Design the sequence.
């Protein structure tokens, strides 16, 4: 019989990926299912958690501009929620003391590169100091597993080939540097205190509920209103795209399969120039390419991301959603939830 996982504390559970993970844990991620209604996942982890009680899933989120509990409306009442800043050591200690989580899955972060270029303060605070607070508490309250959701951006960019988990960390943006700093801190806790931590480095995510400051929802939102769609430089930068429920599923998979102290890349292998992604969305929406407006490049813009994900694949994980169907589902979701999209875009 599979060993049951125990009480889980999820930070950043009201965010884009964290909420997909919470919905997956609670068995309510409808976007896991294809149009035919068949589960598209070879390694659906729902069975572990579906019938567990509310008290076993604790979500901690500060609800910054990026956090929104509407992402969790389908599972309302089935998790315990604390509105808390992970940098607030006292409050976080009270939570750990009361909840005694066995597993900590750490998504909470400032996550937008452009904002970090404008001002890195909150990035260092949350992504580095906040992570250190969680590491100390996980150590002192003896969590069985600390799982950091890092990013492929810690490796910097690569012109040809792919990054493996042993590639050096060469972050280029303040965001990526703050995530790399957190990764190094975690490695030090593994070595010094034997903390059973795992670092997961996903590639770019897309899917339902993504805040419209990131490329794909920005394009959808603006195109729906027939507004110009801004694209950095000539749009030739390459990103690797992973559907958000595949990312959530991969993280859950690794909670069971990963070895403590190890790093795992989590990529789809689907790499594409930004301009092609933008044109594809316009095509799905039936909008003309003349909406595209090339704008001044992002400072220090990473050229190409590419992950070698053979380590997680050798353990048996496979992505379930192709880019073709994922992007269609994402566009459809945003059309259906246009009020949410426009509401968020107005604040962005
Ligand atoms: N989105 C991507 O493409 C992507 C790719 C790779 C890795 N990641 C990583 O995955 C994680 C989740 O990314 P996302 O896109 O869901 O981010 P997001 O910005 O959508 O969500 C972040 C969440 O963290 C919360 N938060 C921020 N600061 C906090 C604090 N001090 N205390 C408590 N909560 C706080 C926010 O309220 C929000 O709910 C991040 O760690 C990010 O670095 C994201």
Sequence:
């Amino acid at each position: 019989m599979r060993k049951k996982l125990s009480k889980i504390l999820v930070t950043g559970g009201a965010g884009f990926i964290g909420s997909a993970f919470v919905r997956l844990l609670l068995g309510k991620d409808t976007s896991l299912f294809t149009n035919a209604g068949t589960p598209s996942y070879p390694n659906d982890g729902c069975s572990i958690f579906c019938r567990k009680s509310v008290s076993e899933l604790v979500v901690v989120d500060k609800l910054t501009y990026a956090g929104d509990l509407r992402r969790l409306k389908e599972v309302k009442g089935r998790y315990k929620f604390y509105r808390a800043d992970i940098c607030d050591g006292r409050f976080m200690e009270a939570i750990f003391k009361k909840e005694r989580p066995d597993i900590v899955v750490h998504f909470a972060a400032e996550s937008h590169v452009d904002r970090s270029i404008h001002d890195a303060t909150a990035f260092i605070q949350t992504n580095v100091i906040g992570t250190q607070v969680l590491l100390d508490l996980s150590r002192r309250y003896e969590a069985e597993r600390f799982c950091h959701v890092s990013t492929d951006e810690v490796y910097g960019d690569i012109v040809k080939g792919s990054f493996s988990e042993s590639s050096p960390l060469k972050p280029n943006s303040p965001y990526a540097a703050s995530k790399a700093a957190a990764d190094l801190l975690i490695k030090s806790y593994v070595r010094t205190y034997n903390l059973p931590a795992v670092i997961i480095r996903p590639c770019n995510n897309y899917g339902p509920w993504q805040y419209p400051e990131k490329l794909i929802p920005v394009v959808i939102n603006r195109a729906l209103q027939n507004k110009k769609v801004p694209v950095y430089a000539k749009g030739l930068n390459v990103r690797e795209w992973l559907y958000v429920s595949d990312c959530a599923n991969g993280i859950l998979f690794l909670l069971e399969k990963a070895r403590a102290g190890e790093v795992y890349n989590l990529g789809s292998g689907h790499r594409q120039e930004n301009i092609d992604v933008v044109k594809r969305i316009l095509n799905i929406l039936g909008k003309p390419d003349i909406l595209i407006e090339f704008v001044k490049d992002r400072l220090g813009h990473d050229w190409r991301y590419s992950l070698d994900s053979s380590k997680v694949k050798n353990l048996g994980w496979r992505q379930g959603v192709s880019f073709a169907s994922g992007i269609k589902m994402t566009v459809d979701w945003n059309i259906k939830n246009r009020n949410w999209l426009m509401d968020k875009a107005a604040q962005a």
